[in-house]
Amino acid sequence: MVAIQGIKGSFHHQVAQNYFGVEQEILICHSFREVANQLKNKEATTGVMAIENSIAGTILPNYALIDTFDLQIIGEYFLNIDMHFMALPDQSIEDIHEVHSHPIALLQCANFFEDYPHIKLVESSDTAFAAKQIKEKQLKGIGALAGPIASDLYDLEILAKSVHTVKSNKTRFVILKNKDLEKAELSNKASLKFELDDTPGSLATVLNVLNNCKLNLTKIQSLPIIEQPFQYSFFVDVVFEKYKHYEKAKKLLEIMTTHFKVLGEYQAGEPQE
Amino acid sequence: MVAIQGIKGSFHHQVAQNYFGVEQEILICHSFREVANQLKNKEATTGVMAIENSIAGTILPNYALIDTFDLQIIGEYFLNIDMHFMALPDQSIEDIHEVHSHPIALLQCANFFEDYPHIKLVESSDTAFAAKQIKEKQLKGIGALAGPIASDLYDLEILAKSVHTVKSNKTRFVILKNKDLEKAELSNKASLKFELDDTPGSLATVLNVLNNCKLNLTKIQSLPIIEQPFQYSFFVDVVFEKYKHYEKAKKLLEIMTTHFKVLGEYQAGEPQE
């Protein structure tokens, strides 16, 4: 059972299908916190969670959930977010007077609808929920903005493809499970969290260690606003060729940093074109 | 004239007042892009723009605007985002059947309203806009979620103070102007952008240089998803005691990195308690 945020037809559902296959059973959750909770309670064995987006950046609250619920990242998946304008079959754009979707999706597609001032933008809780409502209530004259999986699942016709303004909108999802710290010698990537005292050059020293151990940094993010002065937190992703190199770096970081934590060790995903 | 995103009574207006004083004239803009545009067109001499938040993280699209519109950061301001529930005077919470606010504000205060299931959450374009509508249309039975400046400005009564779930919600705003590259020798902080080739240890080398020049890192952010493989972008903030140390580091970074750009040199702001 894979816990996902959102209903069937959502982008999280798309990732679950692409990663685990279409046969995989899905556990619908109404929030990211619920995904974390279902993993903790062992209602689900794995979960899918968006973690960063090429337009909006890192979703820090999800890092906090992974950390506080002690979840483990076991994989990652990059999805191109492709927003289609869809409605019940046999209608044209002129027949549509309202489009329903998640507020962020509406925002990302607002430019497209400037050419159709007769269409009112209406907020919905989720991209897929808007599509589902149209199907279930057979709502004529209402459109949805959602991913291709939603049009398939709810038998909607695509009136316009890829109507989002910024075309390159990639989201990185992590695949999660409840932590049980199995050794993952096939991994070539790890997500780490640590804190450093504000002694000059402390981060440079850590990066030198990673470099000497042949680890390569693919992401670094300091926590945005320092609550405790002179104390800094970092989220870091590293890739490596040999697990033993990573193991050596891990031992050194445990000594050099405080609150060192491995959020996950896994196989790196491939960004789509 | 200070360009702000949002109408009077918004958190951006609050920052403009705190930073420039209450007498300062305000130019209302409906998007961050419009703020950037008004600065470029010299309709405004300065602007206020949210850049990162302790819950949601960095607002990357705003970094992109500063970069592409060639704006200059000349200051920063940290504001505690305090969300109050307000309505026309002489009503109790029981009299209110709808609360209007920005979708993110509704989300951040959703826990509070679980105790009041008779109150429907309704999306509005802006926290302050909801407050303004209530005042102008004398809407009884409707509440708004907004900052303290909105209740003052639109004569609303606060029914419940600080109703947001996560109490520590700090936002960092930058103060912007059109770039004219004046020398800012009183600065003790700078925001930089640069790119690095994916040669092992290239970031560590840059941080060693900053450290050798006595600069201290207060923020580092790699761009979230790498569009061009083997090419990394970074946004970095540094603080320093002596401008000449920073000048030396700047010269070195110009040689060591590609697309090196100073987004601003300014006096560091003080986070509130």
TrEMBL record, chains A, B:
EC number: 4.2.1.51
Domain ACT: 191-267
Keywords recorded for this protein, A-Z: Amino-acid biosynthesis, Aromatic amino acid biosynthesis, Lyase, Phenylalanine biosynthesis
Keyword Cytoplasm: no
Domain Prephenate dehydratase: residue ranges: 1-178
Record SUPFAM superfamilies: ACT-like, Periplasmic binding protein-like II
Main enzyme class: lyase
Pathway the protein contributes to: Amino-acid biosynthesis; L-phenylalanine biosynthesis; phenylpyruvate from prephenate: step 1/1
UniProt key word Lyase: yes
Reactions performed catalytically: prephenate + H(+) = 3-phenylpyruvate + CO2 + H2O
UniProt cross-references to Pfam families, sorted A to Z: PDT
Protein name per its UniProtKB record: prephenate dehydratase
